[in-house]
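Following up on my earlier thread - several people asked me to post the actual chain instead of describing it. Fair enough. Here it is, all 427 residues.
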Amino acid sequence: MPKSIASRLYLIIFTGLLLAHGMSFGLLFFERYQSAKTVMLNTLEHDVGTSVAILDRLPAAERPAWLGRLQRDNYRYILGPGQGGTDPISDRARVVTGLIQREVGPSFAVKANTVAMGPERYQVHLTLHDGAPLAIEVTPRVMPLADWLPFVFILQMIVLVVITWLAVRLATRPLVRLARAAESITPTNEGPRMAEDGPTEVAQAAVAFNAMQDRIALYVKERLQILAAISHDLQTPITRMRLRAEALDDSQERGKLLQDLHEMEHLVREGVAYARSAHGATETPRKIDPAAFVESLVFDYQDTGKAVSLSGSVDGTAIVRPQALRRVLGNLIDNALKYAGTAEVGMARTAAGTLCIEVADRGPGIPEDELGRVLEPFYRLENSRNRDTGGTGLGLAIAAQLMLSIGGRLTLAARPGGGLIARVELP
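Reply from S.P.:
Thanks for posting it. Predicted structure:
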């Protein structure tokens, strides 16, 4: 079976209609054939008796003039012995011979023989009362078909194709709309809502989809509010604890306590940042020069003495959300600098018009089976408990969430020769 539902429906509906149409056409053709055969035999039976009686009563000199008048499409009369041949070998020839014998009566001795088989042609022989031989040559013919029948058949096939196309389109169009709406769904409920009209089943699915989208937006909003509240409530006690720790005498325990407080503040800020990353689409899109945008970002790192290089460029403009894009690229560059010491930024535009920005490094890289998992929140490759080396496990998750919220995509790939390539794609 084909892969798509539309192709399967095309195949099933068109095949079913074609089989039904073929069966109807075959039955009608068979019924017409049987009717024509019955009419031909009845006509032959009665007409031959009358014709033989006429020829039997006419003078021998006048009989040739009547042969053309008595001739029909599928049989004719021959004055004389006719042609010889084999005995009748077809059931149809035997039936016709019996009908003629019954019609002309027992006063005529009737016998038949086959003259040819391609097409079938046979002769029925009898002798008139004056001793003159008479032969009836019968040529059964296939029921003639009208000249316009092929055009009607072609028209019917066109109608079948059109009906199948309309049925499949009506059946699959709601699925296409549902798929597009699902692809464009956003955590902030800014995606297109499905029209709640059409057939009952389609309307119910649209209502359920819109309700699901509302629930997702509500859950994300509640998550942000909870994290914001936790962050706000933790800031005050953390600040008091830091002030009290700073008032203590210099000691090893004081330094450890301040370090723990610093990690707590960092973790709270990153948690809130991840929650807010789902709402990256709230920023108003602006038209920018992507080449100048990335160059300024790279130059900012270079001004601070960081080993960040830029290669490639793109022409034209792009409509993006600058703050979200800057945060994503900054996060990727910071990761490259952290684990490799250098970052290589490249730009290109694909044939489809997609803006592609890559951040590559020569660091330890990420195993192939871990490339997808590192984009999950709080997942760290390094098992170290030190936040300076292991991090919180939210950096790449925030970047991936931001790209998803603004309609882009973040992918990771192993770099040939060692290292990692982080690719940002924007339509």
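The two ends are 34 Å apart (CA to CA). That should answer part of your original question.
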